[in-house]
Structures are given as structure tokens and as C-alpha cells.
Specification:
With 180 residues, the protein is α/β, with parallel strands linked by helices. 41% of the residues lie in helices and 17% in strands. It has a single domain, classed as Vaccinia Virus protein VP39 (Rossmann fold), CATH 3.40.50. A 6-stranded mixed beta sheet has the order 3-2-1-4-5-6, with helices on both faces. The longest helix has 16 residues.
């Protein structure tokens, strides 16, 4: 993949739209991750940009990208997104891509044992909060102390970093809810 120029890197980090995603671009520019998990793909714009930045620094075969989304299972009130076929077509060749369709809680529980820890986890605000609550336990298993977890609290808002301790606390609360 072509190298990323200074102007393009600066534009992504400082001037790209939506402005809230600049945090994601800066994190990827600072330390290109080899393993990326994204929950809620949306229209693929963010995903393509992230993979473009990482691909400019690393070989596409060394990048493993896993995307969880409802794809064709979207409800009428859900934000716009792509189909599974469009996502495969749009991301082909940028990394080793694994797309998992379905509700994020059931999709993540299905594939969790087959995945290694991720360097970068992106959690979109488009994800249903109730389903995401059931995911914290699995996300805890898929991250390490060096993993970067970025969460979009509301659509269009800036992405916030979630520490490993905060993730562990959310996972513990989820387990306590289930226990009664």
C-alpha cells in the first residue's frame, strides 16, 4: 500500500470530518495496531481510513481486522450501514478481514474463543447499549494492558479512551447483574 504523506497524516489527525474521529486517527498514527476489533462498522468510512493509515506502515498481510455489525439485520431505526457483501468488497486487500454478522453480544460470544488479544478496539455509539453491556466480559478477555480501547459515547461525539481498569469494572458489573 502507498505510504502516507505528511499532509494526509496531518489532515487526518487535525482536519478530517467528523471531528470526533480525529482521536481514532491520531491513535492509529501514533502506534499502528496489528490487530483491530471494531464493533459497529457504519458506512465503512472510518474503517477504510484506519486501515489505510495502518496499511501505510505495515504489510496488509500482518494486519488482522475483525468487524462486528448487524449488516443486513439492521432495524428501521438503526443508523445507516453497509451490507455484509459491500463490507467484504470494500475492505478486501487492506488487511486480513473477518466480518461477523449479528447482534454484537451474540456475535462476540460466538467468536471470542477463536480470537487473540487486540491492540486496538473501537466501539461505535451506534451499538445498542443493552447488547454492549453483555459484551464487556468478552472484551475483557480480548484485551491486554497495552490494548487501546476507544469508545464513542454518542454519535458524532469525540472518542474517549477506556482504560483496562474501567473495562474490568464494567465487566464485573455485568457479571454481578447476571448473578442477581
Amino acid at each position: 500500500m502507498a505510504r502516507l504523506g505528511f499532509l494526509e497524516a496531518t489532515w487526518l489527525a487535525r482536519f478530517s470530518r467528523p471531528a470526533g474521529e480525529r482521536v481514532v486517527h491520531r491513535a492509529v498514527l501514533r502506534a499502528p495496531p496489528r490487530r483491530i476489533l471494531e464493533i459497529g462498522l457504519g458506512t465503512l468510512l472510518r474503517t477504510r481510513r484506519v486501515l489505510r493509515v495502518v496499511g501505510a506502515r505495515l504489510d496488509a498481510t500482518s494486519i488482522h481486522y475483525v468487524g462486528l455489525d448487524r449488516f443486513e439485520g439492521r432495524q428501521p431505526g438503526d443508523p445507516p450501514g453497509v451490507t455484509l457483501k459491500e463490507a467484504h468488497r470494500g475492505l478486501h486487500g487492506q488487511a486480513r478481514v473477518q466480518l461477523v454478522p449479528g447482534n454484537v453480544d451474540t456475535a462476540l460470544s460466538r467468536v471470542c474463543n477463536h480470537l487473540a488479544p487486540f491492540d486496538l478496539v473501537l466501539i461505535s455509539a451506534d451499538t445498542d447499549e443493552r447488547q454492549l453491556d453483555r459484551c464487556w466480559f468478552f472484551l475483557q478477555r480480548l484485551t491486554t494492558a497495552t490494548s487501546r480501547i476507544l469508545v464513542e459515547e454518542r454519535p458524532g461525539a469525540a472518542w474517549a479512551t477506556l482504560s483496562k481498569q474501567q473495562l474490568d469494572d464494567r465487566a464485573a458489573r455485568t457479571v454481578m447483574k447476571r448473578a442477581g
